[in-house]
Fold this protein.
Amino acid sequence: QVQLLESGGGSVQTGGSLRVSCVASGRTFSGYVMAWFRQAPGKEREFVAAVVWSSGTTYYADSVQGRFIISRDNAKNTMYLRMDSLKPEDTAAYYCAADPFPRGGKVAEMGEYDYWGQGTQVTVSS
């Protein structure tokens, strides 16, 4: 049973930085794609970034490209999302997700991910 546990959310002012983490357990994750999604109140959940666990290849939504960095530590089974130059529109619950059977070109699709964490809140004030 795969389990994902996020941590590291919090409150920060515009322009500030935060790092959120996701500890994955239950099996080895080579071959998986791991991702971050976010959901703001009243909005649909949206893709933020993804990483191919084995190769480290990364993907980003246009809205966070150049400000966020996704990474993973294979030895710790942990994924990170470093968020810089935060904006009020980045305010959301951030969710970790795992796709055990990735298909090319679909890293941004929620339906591809079988496992989800419970989320961690990030609030950016102006």
About this structure: The mean pLDDT is 96. DSSP finds no helices and eleven strands in the chain.
